[in-house]
Input
Amino acid sequence: MDQKNKTSKKPKNSKFSQQELPAWKPILTPGWVITSFITIGVLFIPTGLLALSASDNVVEIVDRYDEGCIPDSYSQKAESYIQNPNQNKTCVRTLRVPKKMVAPIFVYYQLEKFYQNHRRFVKSKSDKQLRDADAQDDTHNCFPEDYTADNKPIVPCGLIAWSLFNDTYKLSARGKAINIDKKGIAWKSDMEAKFGSNVYPKNFQKGTLIGGGKLDERIPLSEQEDLIVWMRTAALPTFRKLYGKINTDLESHETITAEVENNYNTYKFGGRKKLVLSTTTWIGGKNDFLGIAYISVGGLCLFIAINFILLYVFRPRRLGDPSYLSWNRQPIV
Output
C-alpha cells in the first residue's frame, strides 16, 4: 500500500496541537482584588435590602389547626378520632387580616415532618400509567397500592397518590362566602405532559385502608389539579402546597372565618398542619433568606476589602518580590 494514502492519526503540526496559542491570565494585583470585593459588596447589599423589603411587603396569615381541631375528649387519642368515620371533623377557625391583602391571594396547606422525599415514597408511582390509558397494568413500582383484593389495577397506583391530602377549607367574611378558585393551581407542563387526558381513576381508595383523598372517576387525571399538585413531591419535610386562589381583596383588620374539614391523619407521625393565606411580590412569597444572604455576602466582601486596604497601606510589599518565596527566606537561627 502506498505510504502517501495511509490515514494517519498524527495531529497536524499547528500552534493549537502544540499548545502555542496566545493565552491570557489575570494577575491578581491588590488594586484588582480590592476593587472586585468592593464591587460585589456595593451590588449585593442594595439587592439584599430590596429583597428584604419585598419580603416584608408580603402579607401572610398562618394558622396551625391540627391541635385546635381535636376535641378535648380526644386530646390524648387524636389518631382514633381522625380514623373514626362517624365523627364530625368540621372545625371553625377565626383568622384576622393584619393589613390589606391585594388579590390574588394564595391559599396553601402546610405540612411539617412529612418526608415526601423518602426514596421508597418517591418511587411509588407509575409515570407510564399516569400518561397512557393502555398502561393501567404497569404497576410494578406501586406495591402495596398496585392491585385491589380482587386483582384489579389501581389507577393512579402507588403511595404518593394514595396519601393524597384531603383536608378542605371554606372561607367567609361578614357573612359572605369567599370563593377559592381551584383552577390553574398546577403546573401547565405537568397537566399536559405527565398526566393523560384520557386516563381516568379506577379502583382508587377502594381498599380497607384509606390513605387520603378520593378522586372523581368521571374526571381525567389531567384535570385533577389537587392530585397533580400533591404528586410533585417536596424536597424538605416542611412544605407548602397550593390549595387555591382568592381573586378578591381582603381588607385590613377584617375577620375571616375558616371552616376546616380536619380529615388528614398527621397524628400518626407527629406532624403538623397549617392553613396559610399569602400575597406575593416580585420575589414570590415571604422569604427573608435571600435578602439576608445577599446582605451577609456583601457585608463580608466589604469587610475583606477594608482589611486589604489597611494591609496594603500600612504593610505594602512590591508585587512579584521573589524574596517572599519560602526557599529564598533566610532560616531563623
